[in-house]
Structures are given as structure tokens and as C-alpha cells.
Design goal:
The protein is about 0% helix and about 55% strand. The protein contains no helices and 14 strands. It has strands at about 5, 15, 30-40, 50-55, 65-70, 75, 80-90, 95-100, 105-110, 110-115, 120-125, 130-145, 150, 155-160. About 10% of the residues are buried.
Length: about 170
């Protein structure tokens, strides 16, 4: 008797056999999948089939690969200076949103390169004051399966400007 095992899983190859069919598949893709075994029937037996469903959920939090700043921590204060905070993120599925918390203020990050599952996210901030002890910074990341991750607190230092400067206003 010929049995067939089929599925809607990507890359699945139908299996046929006259004896017991065994299959061990590691499901890495999120979704609902069906696995159907069927017997087409013959002169002695009626056809029959049975379908089982497997639901696979993403349970892994997004990975924060690295973070960086421009200019780097420890820079001297300069009025009106722009600061760029960056995080490189990876996820099995898709990043939903990214928040950088700087000194207890939340900033929504934007993706400036890569894609939603492997990209670089940034926040731009302007005119931070000197803070020799450092501004506490934490990145929070959420994916479309509602898995969260965050960095440990780290500190972004802006040194007091020791050089003399003058603002010239032509008016």
C-alpha cells in the first residue's frame, strides 16, 4: 500500500512509501503549517487521509548586536552640536519598533540602513549639555511577535568645553 506525506511548508519534498513514513523537521519559520498523510485507496481499501497542523511562534527576542555614537562618548561640549546614537539589530522575523532612552526621555529610532530583520537604527539629538558623569542610555527593541530586548544602561559623557569660543551675531 502506497502512503504519501505532504505539507505546505516551504522547501518540503513529498514523501512516498509502502511502509511506515517517518519525518523529523525543525520548523524555523513562523506560521501555521499542515502535514497530511493520505492513502489513495486500492481494490481492497477505501482512500483516507489525516491532516495535522503545527503552529510555530517566534519566541526569540531581537538581538542587539552593537551600539555606537557619533561623536563618541567623552567629546567636549559645543553649542548646537548634533549627536547620532546607533544600534545594529537582528531578528528572526521583523523589528516592530525601537526606542532609545536618553536621560529618562524616550526617542523613537528610525531604520537608516538594512531591512526590518537585520538593520541599523538611529536617533538624532541636538545640543546636549555637558555632563561629566554621563547621560544614561538604554535601547529597547520589540519585534512583530512582541518579544522584547534591551541593553544594559551605559553612559554617554559630554565634557565641559575648556576652550574659549565666542558666538558672533551679525545683528
Amino acid at each position: 500500500k502506497n502512503l504519501t506525506l505532504t505539507s505546505n511548508m516551504s522547501g518540503w519534498v513529498d514523501q512516498n512509501g509502502t511502509n511506515r513514513i517517518n519525518n523529523e523537521t525543525l520548523l524555523k519559520q513562523n506560521g501555521i503549517f499542515n502535514i497530511t498523510s493520505y492513502f489513495a485507496g486500492d481494490e481492497n481499501y477505501s482512500s483516507s487521509s489525516q491532516t495535522l497542523f503545527a503552529t510555530v511562534h517566534d519566541t526569540h527576542a531581537p538581538l542587539i548586536v552593537s551600539n555606537s555614537t557619533y561623536p563618541g562618548s567623552g567629546i567636549e561640549y559645543f553649542p548646537g552640536r548634533a549627536y547620532k546614537f546607533n544600534a545594529t539589530l537582528q531578528d528572526e522575523d521583523s523589528i516592530s519598533f525601537v526606542i532609545m532612552q536618553l536621560n529618562s526621555t524616550n526617542y523613537t529610532a528610525y531604520r537608516h540602513s538594512g531591512n526590518v530583520s537585520n538593520g541599523n537604527w538611529s536617533v538624532n539629538v541636538t545640543d546636549l549639555s555637558a555632563n561629566a558623569t554621563g547621560y544614561p542610555v538604554v535601547w529597547y527593541v520589540n519585534d512583530t511577535s512582541n518579544n522584547w530586548n534591551k541593553t544594559n544602561v551605559w553612559y554617554y559623557v559630554i565634557q565641559k568645553n575648556t576652550s574659549a569660543y565666542t558666538s558672533i551675531n551679525p545683528n
